[in-house]
Amino acid sequence: MEETDREAVATAVQRVAGMLQRPDQLDKVEQYRRREARKKASVEARLKLLCNYEFEPQTSKETRQPGYQFCKKVLSPIEVPEIVRETQDLIERGELLQAHRKLMDLECSRDNLMYEQYRMDSKNTHDMNLIHTYFGDMQKLSEELAKQLWMVVQRSLVTVRRDPTLLVSVVRIIEREEKIDRRMLDRKKQTGFIPPGRPKKWKEKMFNILERTVSTRIEGTQADTRESDKMWLVRHLEIIRKYVLDDLLVAKTLLDQCFPPHYDIFKRLLNMYHQALSTRMQELAAEDLEANEIVSLLTWVLNTYKRSRFRYYLWSFCEEQQNRVEVSEQLEPL
Fold it and tell me: Which GO molecular function entries does the Swiss-Prot or TrEMBL record give (predicted)?
């Protein structure tokens, strides 16, 4: 035992000496200490997992074999706690693509383990729960990463002007998840197994968030009330007109380039704005409007939106004649 301790100390001294060969590396001592502490915690977690894992008494070699294979899988070099911490750090630093890559590696390790266990004994919920518990922090990582993605999506019209690469990264992550969803669903058809949390449907969630963002954008344009400004409705409608045109111009010229063609992002946004406008006009019409306000609302709908340059701009955004026809058919009357 003493000889083992001496070897461990000698190895540690050699490792520390290798880390601190230059004067500038002294500034990173605390960083090195934290990294080694994470590795230590990872090893301890794996040892704890092994100690807590109990095999039920079996009588035959055949019935013992699945448990042995499962144990062998679990003891493979998967540094889950360390990878979780590294991924969390990447998320906090905004390095979303790298964070997602590590998350995918973790999910792949967990899913493969669970699939192997499912193939050996699909009714063994104990082993399944053991794997799921061991990778428990991974679900929190996925949720935290998703929060960051949705924040970028909510501000996409701003982000695309300031940092389009960030938006492209978010779209790439969503595309990765869509491919994994399809692969997992295909495997479910063949084997009956699908990992926890699948399908994530992040693409669908992204469009839902965009739709809510557009609705909030339209609703939030009312800055005045009748009590504070008799022309509140005229101002409100003018702000709507300006915001919608500005947003769609950005969507067509910049946002469209950040999404794959099959997303058809501009046409989707055009429909979202149209639906949001329709809802807002109905809300305004349901209010107790005065006579002059009713005239202002009708004038805006009939002239500004349907017949004036406003409608022409929406039309002109659709460059191809076929797209214009499709959009005209899709946009229902306000």
Answer: SNARE binding
Range scoring the smallest mean pLDDT among 50-59, 142-151, 283-292 = 50-59
225 lies in the same domain as 100:
no
Largest CA distance in the chain: 96
Domain boundary (159, 175, 195) is at: 195
CB proximity list for 152: less than 8 A, separation 6 or greater: 159, 166, 167, 170
* Residue type at position 222: Q
Among 218, 234, 219, 208, CA closest to 290:
234
pLDDT one-digit tens code per residue, 218-242? 988 776 777 777 888 999 999 998 9
Which position has the token pair 């070099």? Answer: 77
Residue 247 lies in domain: 207-330
> Considering the entire predicted model, what is its pTM?
0.71
Using CA atoms, how far residue 12 sits from 5, 16, 22, 89, in Å, is 10, 6, 18, 26
Angle between helices 96-120 and 136-154 (to 10 degrees): 140
End-to-end Cα, the chain, rounded Å: 83
